[in-house]
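Two proteins, back to back. First:
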Amino acid sequence: MQMVLKRLALAAVSDKRVRETVLAILLGFLLFAVMPVSALCEFFSEGEDAGNFFETIASRMPESQQREYERMESVFSEIEKALSERDLSGRAEEAKAIYLVFLYEKGEQPGFAEKLADCFEKGEDMDALIEEIRKAFGISVSDDDLKALLNAASADVINLSGYENPKTKNAHDLALFAKRAKTGGWGYVWGTYGEVLTGRAFQQKLKQYPAEIGAEKKFISENYLGKRTVDCVGLIKGYLWLDPETKRIEYGRGGHADVGADGMFEKAKEKGRISSMPKIPGIAVWQKGHIGIYVGGGKVIEAANTRTGILETRLSAGTWTHWLKVPGVSYE
C-alpha cells in the first residue's frame, strides 16, 4: 500500500492536470484500505487543502520517484489515447485508477492501454467491466475493492460517454442516466438529486428532512457517505440539472423546476393511464407519491427507498397507474 500512496501523491503534486483524478483515486483506495468512509468524506468536505495534503506525503520521497512518475505519465497518455479512439474519453479517470492501483506493474507490457480500453468498451456496466478486467489481466481482486475504486474515480463528474446528445435533454439520455445510476451503485437519501453525499451535505439533509431521514441515519452513514444519492424524483432532476460542460449536477440548472413526484406529474403536458403508455425508453411512470423511469425491454428503474436503493423492476410487476413525458425532455 505504501508504494501505491507514493505514486498517487507524486502524481498529484507534480501535475495539476491529474490532481483531481489522483485525489479521487486516493479517496477510493483509502475507502476500502485504511480509513472509515465518514472520516474521509468529512476531511475533504470541510475544505481541507488537498494540495498540501499530497505535498506533505510527497515531500518525503526520494528523487528516484520522479522516474516512476514519468513512466506513469506515459501510460496515462496511452490510456487516454486508446479510450479516445473508442469514443470513451469520459472513462479515463476510472481507467487510470485501475491502472495505478491494480495494474501498475503491467503498464509497460506491449498493448497494455489498448487491452484496458477494450475492457471498458466491452463492459456495458460495472459488473461486466470488472469481469472483463479479470479476464484480460488475470487479477484476483474482490468486487467490493474494484467497485469502491471505480466509484471514487468517477465520483466527481458524470460519465457522458454513449449519450445521444449531451447538450440537450432527451429521452435516450435520461434512460441511460438512470441505468448508470443503478449499475454505479447510487444510494437513496430523501431530498437528494445525484450529488456525492458528503458529511456536511448529510447533516444539512437531516435538518431539512428529520422525519424522512432520521430513522435511517445510521444506515445512510455506513452505506452512502461518499457515494452519489437520489430519491425517486431526484433521479430525474439530477439528469435535468446535469451540466454537459462541467459534467456536474447543479441545482436548478436550465430553469427546470424543483418539484416532487406528484408535482412533476401535474406539470406534465403529455400523460395518461399506464395501459396506454408509449414504450419509449425515458418515459416516466408514476403512482401517487412515487415516480420511476421506463428504460426499455419492459423494465423500470426506480429509486425505491433507503434500504433497497435504486432497483430495476419489471413494468408489469409494478403498481404504476400513469405514464408521463417529463417536462423539459425531448421525446422525438
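And the second protein:
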Amino acid sequence: MDKRNHLVKSKKPYQDYHFRCWIPKDLDKFFLQKEFRVSLKGYSYSQCKIISNKLHYNAIQIFNKIREGQMNEITLHEVKNILRDKVKQTIKHINHYDSDTNKYDEEVLNERIHQSSEKEKILKERLKSNYKETVGKIEKEIDKILNSKNIKTDKKNVDY
C-alpha cells in the first residue's frame, strides 16, 4: 500500500483530486474489490496532499484492526464514511487555521501557539483532577458519533 500513489487527479472536466486506497491483498476477499476512491472536494494540491496522507494513515489503521479481528463486521461503505468524516475534520482544521491566524505576523502566530498550548494544559489538568468524569464525557461524544453512523459500540472492547 505504501509504494503506490494515493493522491490522484480525476479526469476532465472537473479536475478534482481523489484519495485512492488500494486494499491489501489479504483483505481482497473481505471487500471483494482491489481499490476504492474518496473525493477530496476540489481543494488545492497542497491541502489534498495533507488530507490524503492522513487518510492513508487512517486506512492502514482500519485494515490492521480488521486483521486483528476488532472490526470484522465493517463494510466498505462504512470505511468510506469514516474516511469522508476525516476529510471533513481535516478541511475544517485547515480552514480554521488559515482564516483565524495571520501567519505573516510573528506576534499573532506566537499568541496563537500560546493559546493552543494553554488549552492543552487545561485539558491535561482536567484529566489529572477529574479523570473519570472527563473520560465519561469523551465516551459520550464517541458514542454519539458512532451511533450517528449506525456503528455498534462495544464498551467491553479494549479499543473502545
